[in-house]
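ok here's the first one, seq then struct tokens
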Amino acid sequence: MHTSALVLFSGGQDSTTCLAQALSKYERVETVAFDYGQRHVVELEARLNVLREIKARFPHWAHKLGEDHLLDLAVLGQVSDTSLTRDVAFRMESSGLPNTFVPGRNLLFLTLAAALAYRRDLQVLVTGVCETDFSGYPDCRDDTIKAMQLALSLGMDKRFLIETPLMWIDKADTWRLAHSLGGQDLVELIVEHTHTCYLGDRTHRQPWGYGCGKCPACELRARGYERYAAALKA
């Protein structure tokens, strides 16, 4: 039986939903984030607000929520020439992938998270990667995650479980999952305090939260919220 988890927690909608699910399942939950020189570094500030609000609004989860970790991964920004780490416009590359793809990002995240979990004696790694409603990132695929789970377990001689609660659901279902876990309070927390916008825009308030409303992350979040809200009214 697994009793503890480390959630890869950026402070966005997806990782907040994953954190809520982990808190509903496990006795001890810790969080980890990575500073890799991302343009939307404001997410690292937003995540602290999310953690504070979860503790305040959900006292039955608060005692389970343990230490938060922030790891410096500046080297990833140094080797990546992408629109998330450089001031360039969003576009599709000749590879067929958007230039928001940061090569190796999730592989490095999971490796460092596993090393931290090893030291902290945490059994489960939780990440919000998704193969259903995503931009084609190869390191978000289910096969990639399964391969990482095997490699990390063998390489550290510790049986890790990597959970991907969002792998086969779309953004509308992610909103629904949040509602099922924490009701309207959690939905409102996600709207008001999480951050997804690639441009780091915290000035424009949309029905689904703060963001420019035009970048790929905002468009995906907006479409999901619209479908979720429409279903509630039906």
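and now the second one, same deal
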Amino acid sequence: MYKLVKPLFFSMNPEMAHHQVTGGLRKFNKIWGAKTLLKSIYAVEDKRLEREVFGLKFKNPVGLAAGFDKNAEYIEEMAGLGFGFIEIGTVTPRPQPGNDKPRMFRLVQDAGLINRMGFNNQGADVAAARLQQLTDRKNLIIGGNIGKNKLTPNEEAVNDYIYCFNALFDGVDYFVVNVSSPNTPGLRDLQEKEPLKHILHTLQQLNISKAVQKPILLKIAPDLTNSQLDDIVEIVTETQIAGVIATNTTIARDGLQSEPTLVKEMGGVSGKPLTKRSTEVIRYLSKKSNGSFPIIGVGGIHSGQDALDKIAAGASLVQLYTGFIYEGPALVSQICKTLLRQPS
């Protein structure tokens, strides 16, 4: 089904295509029987797919990465396509428009994307209100990916993370601290050891003060050196956060085959160009930490085998974004079926 409409969507501006797909899916789901039809086509339900990670029970290990549903608008629609968990965001305290358009570009020859969206979102309060309106989550795990506003100085960034944490706390099951997007000026400076420790320590203390604690994860860049990855392992251990998401988009441009003018566009690269590096980062973190914390693997998953490679490297769960755009919703069921074929 997706192969038939993909050429139409790929003829559009990527951001426009995104809105057409999500809006069309919402309208389709309002038709009587549509939800049941999509579930029968795409959802794979099997007890063997269930995973318990950082204290949460996932009905399957395939999630939708942050960036696709920034404002918690399409949770039910995406869950109907078989995802085991949905991560909203990145959410910032105040609404912001993001960077100037165009800000997303397809690297078709590389099965990748370049984006410099810039945390465009409607703000934490809007996302929180939508989460509260969900009537039936059907055991779906929802994560909240949080960041800082573009105009917030780095020395005050912790206050933005605190605001988002409090605003979304009742609506999400876990949090992701995003300091690794390349599209907000200075944001990646927060990955340095001391600023990062300050943010994570502060959120953990706030978390402990709550009646019920929520897992906090850290999303990291694929461009970190081994020495910086060593620091990440140390920070995760010291702050006792729940785990790591590896990885965000890359600023590297090595080996890209697409049109040179596109390759030169500013922003982070996702999709197949990221497959190898993100798996390397997962493997390094897993070995260096002796598997002491869970890792969610994301970056260049376009097949069941790609997901298996991430899991073999040390990931407990995986997430899709660009692979989902290129391969369509059948990718979720393909990964689940691939996992079920593996020896127990």
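notes on #2: The first strand starts at residue 51 and ends at 53. The chain has a mean pLDDT of 96.
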